[in-house]
Design brief:
alpha+beta; Jelly Rolls; Arc Repressor Mutant, subunit A; four-stranded antiparallel sheet
């Protein structure tokens, strides 16, 4: 029981000193929009970015607000959500260092289509419209990379919609856990810990299912030894078994 009560998650350091120049440039290099840039160009991009530190649970922007910034996660984790027609919150994505989110009118969005909230203390690198414009003027190849990056995000969204539309919950939840492990997993006690504080409600929102159904399935998988879990944390013990579930082989 003690193990289940313990939350084995690392706590990001939101101190501005932690978001150092070297870290900022390294994070920018992970972003699809800037991945092909050389060291000098990355330094140019960094000069246009403004660091913003936010606490866990803090709102970054709200669905329907005027789109004013693109953000890159440098430290911590952020979730994006949308309100469903029935008023329930649907979790759209989990963002970790190197992921970008937000919107700008130049990218075809005058308003944010989702809300963004810090899951942990976080350091974000922000670009407003004039700063992003300046980058495009200085480094034209970023424009092509932007189109590819936006297209990739659209493809990911279409894949998620396909999964939600047709796959059984077992497959959707297994696929979700494996994706999260790839994005935010770290070794822990012989398993892969999802190193972000996700509630059962969060996982249910991402899987498109009722919280009770997701809780029952997670409890079943824990009894079978495929995962370990506690309050706001999940660790994957048997990834091969979850891959079989995801692929409809179990």
């Amino acid at each position: 029981m003690n193990k289940r009560r313990h939350i084995p998650l690392s706590t990001p350091n939101p101190d501005p000193e932690a978001c150092s120049l070297a870290m900022r440039i390294a994070v920018c290099q992970k972003v699809p929009l800037f991945a092909d840039l050389d060291a000098q160009q990355l330094a140019q991009v960094n000069r246009h970015c403004h660091a913003r530190n936010v606490g866990a649970g803090a709102s970054i922007y709200l669905e329907g607000d005027a789109a004013t910034h693109l953000y890159v996660v440098a430290i911590g984790a952020v979730k994006t959500t949308r309100l469903a027609a029935d008023g329930r919150e649907s979790l759209i994505d989990l963002l970790t260092p190197g992921d970008f989110f937000g919107a700008l009118p130049v990218l075809g969005q005058k308003h944010y289509v989702d809300s963004a909230t810090a899951l942990t203390p976080a350091c974000l690198l922000g670009l407003d419209a004039p700063e992003y414009d300046a980058i495009l003027q200085e480094i034209p190849q970023v424009a092509v990379a932007t189109l590819k990056g936006v297209a990739h995000r659209l493809t990911q969204s279409q894949h998620a919609i396909h999964m939600l539309a047709g796959a059984p919950l077992e497959q959707r939840l297994a696929a979700l856990l494996l994706v999260l492990a790839d994005k935010a997993g770290k070794p822990w006690n012989g398993a892969t810990l999802l190193d972000v504080p996700l509630t059962r409600e969060d996982l249910a929102a991402m899987a498109g299912a009722a919280t009770e159904s997701v809780s029952r399935l997670l409890s079943q998988w824990q009894r079978e030894g495929w995962i370990d879990a506690g309050r706001r944390w999940v660790a994957i013990v048997d990834a091969a078994r979850l891959e079989q579930v995801r692929d409809g082989m179990v």
